[in-house]
Amino acid sequence: MMKENMIFEHEHPFSLIDLWSEQLRREEESEEDEEENDDVLIANQDFQCLCSRCGEEINWYHRYYYSCCHCSDYSVHKFCAELPQRLEDVCEVGHALDLTQSTFWMGNWNCKICGRYHKSGDLCYCCDRCYFYFDVNCGTKVLQKNVIHHPIHKHPLSCISKQLLAKCDACGKEHKGNFYHCSICLWSKMIHSDCAFLPQKLQIQDTTNDVFSHIHHLTLAYSFPIDDQSSKNWPRCRVCHNEFIGQSNFWMYKCEKCRYYTHLDCVTSRDEPFLSILKSPGTSSKNYKDDEHLDLLHLPFPDPSYSILKHLFSMEKGLSTLEVSNKNTYKAQGIIHQHPLILEDITNPTFSRIKPISYHDPMKRIQLLCDGCVRPITSGPIYVCDSEGQCNFVLHEWCSRLPAKLNGHFAHQQHTLILHSKAPPRKFFGVFECDICKLHCNGFAYCCMDCNNCIIDIHCAFLPKEITHTSHPNHLLSLVNHESLHDTCRMCGYFYPNLSFDCRTCNDFRLHVKCALFIPETTRNKCDKHPMKLSYFPIENHKSDYFCEVCERELNPEKPFYHCHECMQSMHTACAPSILQYETYDEYPTGVYEFVNVKFGGRYENTKVHPHPLSFVQGIEDDGHCASNDCHYYDNRLQFRMIFKCLNCKFAVHYDCCERMSN
């Protein structure tokens, strides 16, 4: 309680209020629930009223204020209430100024310092000898009494008496206006009032008009140290998707439990920065018209069995590249398969087959891959080999519709590309590296037979010029050929000196062709009984570190990964295709499984290499080291790599070593 005459213009006594008291008490009581503490903080930080002396707002950062014990609408800043009755040596001639209510001779008046308009009777410091006067607000600044209590510093921060044009140490941007600093110690930072009064906690949906949302309140943080950024895998702002590197000492908002981080300007929608955000991914603003892009390909594909070939050819009418031999049996034109093929369709009740087909089922560890596109076959219609031997050739019906020739292809415009069921003989065991996506492949290929300088897999042969992708919604991504190293791919984080899909609106978003085509939206794996969905950011309310259920290594949630929200399990996108045995994943998961376009299996027989038949597989740890005396791998390990191994003995060699030994 304070005495009545301390605020002479009001007749009632006042009580001192501490807006932080309830919050501090709860923080000391460890048994209190964190969410309840948040509610108290939010309620107090939302408090605001006007000071009846200076007319400025009283809020949470002022911490202390006086409230009239009888009047519900009369409150005063603590520093305004404690202003001295007289100021010495303030005016230019050295007169004393008294705190008083403006008199009739002043009428309506303007402060001599800031120029603010006031009505007759408003409180001011006045010299009745030289008629110099200024309002209470300027008086608190002149005396450096206009202070706030801020968690960033142990001392109260004083408002600098003059407006400045300077850089704010909170956001790193230049501001004009009032700045706060410490007048007690050597703390050198200056905080602009726009940043100084930012709420300690907020909900991003409230500050961005529901353009962005998060289930938890975001907390104001006063730095983002490099070590913390590194331990969190260098996260990006959830609004603008730019990094925090180089901004470790600036303020930001975060939800630590969900690894949700945003820049100050992004989360508060302040000024020009937010205008650019409205044009960025994640908003409702589209940079194209649907009626002008009727055949636009929307990626990612729904599941691993889907492909660009299914998208283009499954519903087309016309001749297949297969030639009809009788009602149900087909034979190839020489480039497809050496045996008769039969079209199997389980929806046809009249169809029967001696050798039953087990469709691809990761949950049962059954793998059935198309010999053309090397995508999983989960249903018919499909072509199957009708021979009585051990040939297990299978082909999607739509893969039989591929054109035999491609003229003027953008990757090799000077010559015609010819469809081959296997890479030319110069490619050992039919395995080649696609000139576009750079992935190994042993499926169908389009090759130049004139110069032998171009070979591409059948997926890359039909790349569209434009796509959309859920990782960058509402913006067109255009196919661009980079002749040198350019920006990193947003999916895998690696540089790539070749074709990519780029956003020409944002100029900083890029997807490798392989990441766009071969990472589906959902996948299934034996490690989890539910379908796992592709996620581009850390999961809300995830209470532990991230580990891949397949390879059991740490997982970076700032890069796309698969996650089951029911079981709270995750896995690398590169590990997802590993369904036969858990050791056949990538050594260094980089987005797309390295052998996503390779169908392992098949026998290789060459007595120059080994007296027994060899199987084409991906190496695991038990396979040990390469048996070649001329192995070019630095560690000779077979794990993770394409190898040929003998099932009768322990002989095994790398694919490259086997090729050299066979020559």
UniProtKB/TrEMBL annotation:
Question: Which intervals hold domain Zinc finger PHD-type?
Answer: 50-115, 236-294, 369-438, 547-650
InterPro entries (alphabetical): C1-like_sf, DC1, Vacuole_Formation_Reg, Znf_PHD
Pfam families, per database record? C1_2 (PF03107)
Which GO terms label this protein's molecular function in UniProt? zinc ion binding
**What SUPFAM superfamilies has UniProt attached to this entry?**
Cysteine-rich domain (SSF57889)
Q: Which UniProt keywords apply?
A: Metal-binding, Repeat, Zinc, Zinc-finger
Name of the protein this chain belongs to: Putative zinc finger, PHD-type, DC1, C1-like, Zinc finger, RING/FYVE/PHD-type
Q: Which organism is it from?
A: Helianthus annuus (Common sunflower)
